[in-house]
Amino acid sequence: FSGFAAMLTESQAEAIAKFPEVATVEPNTFHETHTTRSWDFLGLDHNQPAQQPGLLKKAKYGEDVIVGVIDTGIWPESRSFDDKGYGPVPARWKGKCETGEEFNATSCNKKIIGARWYGRGISAELLKGDYKSARDNNGHGTHVASTIAGGEVQGVSYGGLGMGMARGGAPRARLSIYKACWVGGSCSGAAVLAAVDDAIHDGVDVLSLSIGGAGPQFPGTLHAVQRGISVVFSGGNDGPVPQTVGNALPWVTTVAASTIDRSFPTLISLGNKEKLVVRTELSFLLEVCVHCFSFSVIC
Ligand SMILES: *[C@@H]1O[C@H](CO)[C@@H](O)[C@H](O)[C@H]1NC(C)=O
Fold first, then answer.
1. What mean pLDDT value characterizes the chain?
2. C-beta 45 within 6 A of ligand 1
């Protein structure tokens, strides 16, 4: 097809849609977040001069911090979770690596030090379309885990855009995976509670939950915080109005985002010789895209 992406007002979109040559004008849709620059943008630069170490270096890149991630599981073969160069699993760790479909003891390593999954009480229909194990059939859990603690992977791009090193915020931290969300991103409250309970007993230092949608019903997280675990939530993507932040429980840290300092300009030449510069703003940071009113026009 021939077409382009553009920032249009509602009335511009309507006017363009009326041209007989235009097949369709579609409002933008949202997919998973993709970027290789968020952490540098936040000032957590990876390459810091020895005489001026920043927060990331002072924190030893997260060395020996154990982060529990409650989500759709993980794709353990992803290069972000390579355990080359890691020391032994911290001796205080009490978690375990549960095996299951396409996930055996070798799926855990010195980076993914724990994996559990919660299939009880999940409908047979949901289970059928997913791996009965901590393996991620959705992608969200793998995305979240690598955003938090993925190791350094060079030469990553999104279809050639944004070429660079992909890494997590704390690239040396260890991960413990709790799959409480099943295919389609549906997370049962009971499964989440069981996962929080296990994570507390396993000995995680940080718990991360990028889930929402059912209101702030995460009672187990209060107990985690009482045990000295930092609990971090995503702020959500659903509005209903700009600046809406979900999961605003008073005892947790809720992470939202606004923008990033990158854009990908593309020159478009129209048939009438008019040239337009179109900017694709990858305005994604962690979880939240702030209301991007862009449209794709298919001619
Ligand atoms: C399970 O373990 C074997 C080695 O015993 C390995 O070859 C295989 O790839 C593993 N399967 C998965 C899905 O991890």
1. 83
2. no
